[in-house]
Design brief:
Blueprint (H helix, E strand, L loop, with lengths): L3 H10 L5 E2 L3 H12 L5 E13 L7 E11 L6 E11 L3 E3 L29 E3 L6 E7 L4 H15 L5 E7 L8 H14 L5 H5 L11 H12 L11 H16 L7 E4 L2 E2 L11
Parallel strand pairs: 7-8
Antiparallel strand pairs: 1-5, 2-3, 3-4, 4-5, 6-8, 7-9, 9-10
Amino acid sequence: MLSMLKLLTLSTLLSSALFAATTNKEVEEFLEKSFKNNPNITALEVKVVDRNALEGMSGWESLIVSINATLKAQPEPKQIKQKMVWFTDGTLITKELVDIKTGENLADSVSPAFKETQYKKENLIYGNANAKHKVAIFSDPLCPFCRSFVPAAIEDMKKSPAMFAVYYYHFPLASLHPASVELTKAAIAATMQGKKDAVLELYKIEINPNEKDVNKILEVFNKAMNTKVKASDLTSKKVLEQYEYDMHLSEELMVQGTPTIFFDGKMDKSKRQYLKAE
């Protein structure tokens, strides 16, 4: 889903596909000038935060651009922070770059690198922290594909603790599965209370994805988990800090959907790179 900033600007900004550009500063100045043409933007900061060569695309690079804008809105101005992907060959810059053979939009495979400092011990669910490979998983326990893929992938990797350090980051899709938000917080609380395998068991819970009643959600959760998580636990400082950290990190890494997997710091579009690990 496009953010408000994109809805307000991209339809006009991107009517032309290519523009002259070379350095980061030129990119920033060009985008700032283009966005400022929108009268609804009252303040704006544009910064290139990452730039990498595109594999198999000689001379082309991907740019990750951070946008911080203030929009006119009622009853008060709205602050927008987001990251966008652009491409340049040093002379031209474009928002869309599509593989003519596959039809793939290359922006779908661009993501900031996973930093060492983002592998938190609180997110390590299986394996040794010093394992040969680090796998980071962003997932929603009520996402149908996640339910069919994530538990099996985790079960495979947990058999080899010296090979895989498995880090799990909660990324509930509230607009699609409202119940997943409270289920996620309940799982965090249960883990903090010493419940083993809480993440894996989370995928076995059967509940209406649209359920919003916290008490009903916890009734189903506690029965399935054999726990006694209370509604007050979901709003505790530690639980909310962990939940907000996971959600903030997903934004920083431009995670769009579930499951999203990073293998040794890079987004694994295939989601199955662990199967080839040696």
